[in-house]
Amino acid sequence: MGTSLHGQSALLDTLVPYWLGLERTGEALLRSKGRDSGPVVQVIGGRGAGKSALLNALYEAYHNRLPLAHADLDAPGFGHASLVGLAENETPNSSPVTSLLYLLSDQLGLKVERFGHGLQFRRLSVGLLVVSTWQPVGITEEAPGRPEGLRAAERRLFEILRTESNDQRRRKEVLRQWLDALLPAVSGAVGVPAGLDPMFQAVARTARELLLAARPDRGALRWWHDQLPMFTGDGLQRLLPFVLGFRGMADWRQKAEALLVAAFLADIDENYGWHRHHNDAPYPLLLLDNLHTPQGARVLRVLLLAYQQLPRTTRHVTRPVIVASSLGDATADSVTALADATRAADRPPGGHAGGPHVLRLGLPPVGREEIIGMLSPLDCPRHLPLLVERLSGGRPSTARLLVDAAAQLVPAAGVLRMTDFVALLDGTAGGDLVTRLLRQLLPAPHLLDRLTLLSAALDGAAARRLWSSRYPDDNAFNRVHEAAEHLDPTRWNLQPWSAADPPAPFVTDRALRSLLLLRLRTGLSSEDWGQTQRRLRSGYAPPDPALPPDPQQVRYLHHSLALGEANLVVRYLHRRFDEDGLHAWLATVNQICAAPLTHEDSLLQAPPLELALCPSCTGPTAEHVHLAINRLVRALWRQSDPLTVPQDASIERVESALGTLYEHVTESHALQRAHRDWPKSLREGVQAPDLPISGGLRP
């Protein structure tokens, strides 16, 4: 199964086996008097939450054990090579929904060892055959290559059905002539895309048998008769004008697609007769990846409409268990936490027998304890779980890659060293671990490169300024807007810096930004890094002691620190110390010290004293304050790097500096609390700009 499926056992090992009636890892059939029609389960989470991994685990567990079908609604051909190009195929005789129905029914029709023969789709086969191939008389311009023999057969069939002749023998003969002319000409000429040929042939064989052998008022044709009360005649006579609805406007096509899906569901129910129910045969399982996409949203609308169109009944019905993945906010009000979903197993999941039970489940993030469990086979450094948690942002897939990378560093009978792991991420050991982590989250190369550059920006204006400097001939507004649109809460865990006005930074998913900044820093020379930070800084007002504090000045100093200009930052903070209120002062420290580290490690060390350049250093007491602020800034800045774990020496410098500053103010509850809380928070792995400030304020 893999530890990337953290926190999903409630769904994998309890709910889905209960609904299907079959254990995931064993052979036991799960009998339940309350087990009824299967639900539609939407598994919701952000990027890297493990949604696709969950579907893959279900596929591996139940493949060849029960009727199973899977499709990726965001992949070419729904993830099947033979159907590439069909997912977007919208013609008078086909749509993505009909192509998906061909695929699902084909997969469910495969023989399963312990289940017996595959499922049969009588109603759906008749409906798909007519929709895919029937060309209403008088419409010829849409199929110029249609064989003349087929057109003549269609005209004869149309005439005999239009007259409602009682000559069943004649009618069957004309119907056979149409089918005989139709099947040899199937490739493209009759509206069936070439990739569907094998599936269409199976559908056509089933439909041919039904159309020629059954009476018009029995079986599958009777079902279509009952579903189309707006038309007259028997089932076949009503089906042919139904094609006009499929060819009609979007709302008519959606209704027609819903009827085809309803036929699909009714066929599944018919396959589970008394014998299979008596023997507790496991239910079918449909796995649909990327239901959040436009294609997926369309499928879901049609699916739910199909459920509504099916008649309510008090008898036992069988519906498939549908598990679908959706990119979205797992904490939204309409989403049930996966940990709270097990109670759903205590009641029938299907609502009334005809309607769906849509269960929206949010996947949990992976936490420190779970990461420790993932690392348990390794003799790893104490703070490695913290680093994995910070860089993964709770994403199981990212955490898994980081843990696997750590495991590969352990020599035979050796011990993993933190410096070796950090070297994989900061570029000193070579390799592409950070890029591999990011490609998992941002698979589009242009988007990855764009966000890497823009990750250093604190706001949209700065991002546009930076893009214009790099690509003066490009439209910076459009490029930055496109990047910002991708950074929406359905995909990412957005956490802007508190009290930053306007909101900051540009990329507010903390883990994503950390990885992007690592890639940016390792990909730029020291000179290019400096140019990038100076360009970002150029749009903000430089600090002016004569002016009141301003967010622009804070952002200017944030980029100044990223350039290594710590003395400028220290002079500004000394000037503002105990002048604007220490709540605001601590918030400013938090924002400035969240700056990314420079290329030059020497700039992090204690610099030559520049007390003479500081206008606030007017005496021995002031010099003590200046030196304390200098220690505080440099220690916090070092601790703010995403690859830095809690370091006792740096934390002690923070504690000492805050203690010194507290001694030089008359009274400050905020500074007293910071002296107490910041060292504790730093030891727990908290970094600027998230260090707590008294009264609940954060920068």
TrEMBL record:
It comes from the Bacteria. SUPFAM superfamilies: P-loop containing nucleoside triphosphate hydrolases. InterPro entries: P-loop_NTPase. This is ATP-binding protein.
